């Protein structure tokens, strides 16, 4: 099979329906791998033939749609608090492997990490890089986006876009089993999960989340889990219910 390269949309110039020019990091990569004119390569989701190679750019002609691999049928969004650096890096990498479709980091009252605008942007870029590497490593041919870091107020709005949201709350007495059963039985495939910061949510924040119509508060058991453990265990069980082949 032709080799796959992931090129972000900002590095693609669309000439017409069938022809594109790519630039950026993957151009070097393609050259290092000694690809040449007329070779077929996969760029994102398409098979292309190399038409012209320059130092900084490569012209490509579209041949066909590339086969999709490892792409989940479900649409699981992870809303995760801005955890400390290495913790969030870890969660992003593992969430991609487990089949999350997109990731939205947020800032709530107990988030310790403080970022100004410039550093926020850098952080999101780094997280996207980790997500991309994880996609490649685990053989997913889609791309998991880590969205911009949002504030709690905005999070509440965004949650409403999902069909169902499971809010992992250590003070909850509500059973996760019942919620999973409903997701399975009603074939709900557009799900979000919320994982709080190391210090959790304030009770006011928790109350506000619980009030949102499509949000269900769930317990992950009597033990208090670290945010990373909570994220991975909840992703795993929700994916298990939503994906046919598991
Ligand atoms: N507020 C707590 C711990 C927060 S744990 C404290 O400081 O003691 C971090 C996050 O993991 C929580 O916000 C929650 O989303 C999730 N979490 C951890 N244990 C959980 C449990 N038993 N049930 C549901 N969610 C849990």
Concise synopsis of the structure shown:
With 246 residues, the protein is of the alpha/beta class.
Give the tags:
246 residues, alpha/beta, Ribosomal Protein L25, Chain P, Alpha/beta knot, 6-stranded mixed β-sheet, 7 helices, 13 strands
Overview of the molecule:
With 246 residues, this protein is α/β, with parallel strands linked by helices. The chain has 2 domains: 4-65, Beta Barrel (Ribosomal Protein L25, Chain P); 75-242, SPOUT methyltransferase, trefoil knot domain (Alpha/beta knot, 3-Layer(aba) Sandwich). Helices cover 35% and strands 26% of the residues. It has helices spanning 25-32, 85-98, 117-138, 152-159, 176-185, 203-211, 227-242, and strands spanning 4-5, 12-14, 19-23, 40-43, 46-53, 57-65, 75-81, 102-107, 145-146, 150-151, 164-168, 190-195, 215-218. The strands form 2 sheets. Strands 7, 8, 9, 10, 11, 12 and 13 form a 7-stranded parallel β-sheet that branches. Strand 5 (46-53) and strand 6 form a beta hairpin. Helix 2 (85-98) packs parallel to helix 7. It binds S-adenosyl-L-homocysteine (SAH). S-adenosyl-L-homocysteine binds next to helix 7.
